[in-house]
Write a structure and sequence with these properties.
Blueprint lengths: L15 H9 L2 H8 L2 H14 L3 H17 L1 H14 L3 E5 L2 H14 L4 E4 L3 H5 L2 H7 L3 E4 L2 H9 L15 H12 L7 H18 L2 E4 L3 E3 L4 E6 L3 H7 L3 E7 L3 E2 L5 H12 L7 E5 L13 E7 L3 H5 L14 H5 L3 H4 L10 H12 L16 H5 L6 H12 L8 H15 L1 H13 L1 H4 L5 E2 L7 H4 L4 E2 L6 H24 L1
Parallel strand pairs: 1-10, 2-3, 2-4, 4-7, 5-8, 7-10
Antiparallel strand pairs: 5-6, 6-9, 11-12
Length: 492
């Protein structure tokens, strides 16, 4: 079934190429994406230039992730013991279904029906909101961007800016419905309405659900990094706090945290430090006035153990900053929804096939020019281009991923490289057929069959009318003639 221009905003696991067509056909989205490199992208670059020894700090953060993953089971056990020692409870979820069951069960045990959520990509990964709604639990996203797309019924389009794909006018139309009046497309007024609406939700909520940017094994703390303050209200006002984290988010010590705080905000928004950095350690203690009565930490696997032992282990270094999206020419052309998964952009082109299956997301490893801008922007220097190449290699071993014609083309190419005479024949034919076109134009504007997919969007360089081999032979003949002529003149 074809994807319509609006379906891909809501659905997951659609075809990347079809969804890209819808994104490219949207003038408003193209206008927004066209500015991305000059806003967030520029801020990211300026932030690294302004940070002394930024390369060494990024390398240190990368080394901490590498060393932590090498002993992940040990650090997770330490984290569990530390959380329990401080009055919290730890729950282990093997997959998304188990994580949903745990969270819904904890809420129902309290007899709660109203929940507020702070922004969490992990909760998006397990599709938590539909499960809460199906259980009759009223759930409100409190991050401004997440609140907007929840009302619109959209999926996040960016790891940091979930509503980045919407213009101010579109946001005004979305918020006007719960407001019961026509709101102007003025950011201050729209933010003021959302603030007023969400304050009441915070006051009424019985449970708060958050993600975790990091979890510190040594202290049993989780770390939340936000710019709006909604994270603090989500965790402190309700009587029960449930934090959901991927198992790779653990770091060993509190002393490791400053390295990640320095690179996370710079990679995400170009800030030196996010406005709010919370370190939450267990439930409220005796004598404390604020904080929840219960703290639950849900640690999610959902394929991470499998990735940990694979050649693509480095994908677990990701700290979800979104810097690679801001730098990527593909993302800046089609936006986040085209990728069809929870995670978009270059890192999404790696994570979605790993989490949800390579065959079902076969277009994503090819959704990259391999220019390396993502790796240069990444705060922990993840080698995304190399991982995309690895996934492309693995695709060749997936059943049904190669067409008969593609397989034939690869076999012919392999045979020509093994037989010099066949390679020479192929280049001779190309020079004397397609190469003749180059005398008229250096580009081919239309290729036959499946190759038309390339020339539908860009031109293809025509083969040279004269091969290097021909030129070399001609130069050799002329040089021989010159030498013979010179010797004849010398003898005379």
């Amino acid at each position: 079934m074809a994807t319509t221009p609006t379906d891909y905003l809501r659905q997951t696991h659609h075809e990347f190429l079809e969804a890209s067509e819808g994104a490219l056909a949207s003038p408003s989205l193209q206008l927004i994406l066209g500015k991305l490199g000059d806003t967030l992208g520029k801020r990211n670059r300026d932030a690294w230039e302004a940070l002394p020894e930024s390369d060494a700090i990024r390398q240190r953060a990368r080394n901490i992730k590498d060393e932590t993953l090498a002993h992940l089971a040990e650090h997770l056990e330490t984290l569990e013991a530390s959380v329990v020692a401080r009055g919290g409870k730890v729950h282990w979820a093997a997959d998304a279904a188990e994580a949903r069951k745990i969270v819904v069960g904890l809420i129902q045990q309290r007899g709660a029906t109203r929940v507020v959520k702070s922004k969490s990509m992990t909760s998006e990964e397990i599709h938590l909101n539909p499960a809460l709604e199906a259980a009759g639990i009223e759930t409100t996203e409190t991050d401004l961007g997440e609140y907007i797309i929840q009302l619109a019924g959209h999926r996040p389009s960016h790891i940091v800016g979930p509503a980045l794909h919407l213009s101010a006018q579109e946001v005004a139309e979305i918020l006007s419905k719960p407001a019961g009046q026509r709101l102007p497309a003025e950011r201050e007024i729209l933010a003021a309405f959302a603030r007023q609406a969400l304050r009441q939700k915070f006051a009424e909520a019985e449970v708060g659900i958050s993600g975790a940017n990091f979890a510190i094994a040594e202290t049993g703390s989780i770390v939340l990094v936000t710019n709006e303050g909604n994270g603090r209200l989500t965790c402190a006002l309700p009587k029960c706090h449930i934090a959901l984290m991927g198992m790779e988010k653990v770091i060993p010590k509190l002393a490791d945290l400053p390295y990640f705080l320095k690179v996370l905000a710079r990679g995400a928004t170009g800030q030196k430090l996010s406005v709010y950095t919370q370190i939450i350690t267990g439930p409220r203690r005796a004598g404390e006035l604020d904080g929840p009565e219960e703290f639950h930490l849900v640690i999610l696997d959902n394929g991470r153990s499998r990735i940990l032992g694979s050649p693509l282990r480095e994908s677990l270094f990701c700290i979800r900053c979104g810097a690679c999206l801001n730098a990527c020419p593909i993302y800046r052309s089609v936006g986040g929804h085209a990728y069809g998964g929870v995670y978009s952009g270059p890192i999404g082109a790696v994570l979605t096939p790993l989490y949800d299956g390579l065959a079902a997301n076969h277009h994503l490893p090819h959704a990259s020019s391999l220019c390396g801008a993502c790796q240069a922007a990444c705060p922990v220097k993840i080698q995304i281009p190399q991982m995309l190449v690895q996934l492309r290699e693995e695709l060749h071993h997936e059943p049904g991923q190669q067409s008969r014609w593609e397989s034939l083309a690869y076999r012919l190419w392999a045979q020509s490289l093994r037989r010099p005479w066949l390679y020479r024949l192929g280049t001779w034919l190309a020079a004397r057929t397609l190469g003749r076109w180059k005398r008229k134009s250096p580009w081919l504007t239309r290729l036959p069959g499946k190759l038309a997919g390339w020339t539908a969007k860009r031109d293809f360089p025509a083969p040279a009318a004269e091969r290097f081999r021909d030129w070399w032979a001609q130069e050799g003949r002329e040089e021989g003639h010159d030498e013979a002529r010179s010797e004849g003149q010398h003898e005379s």
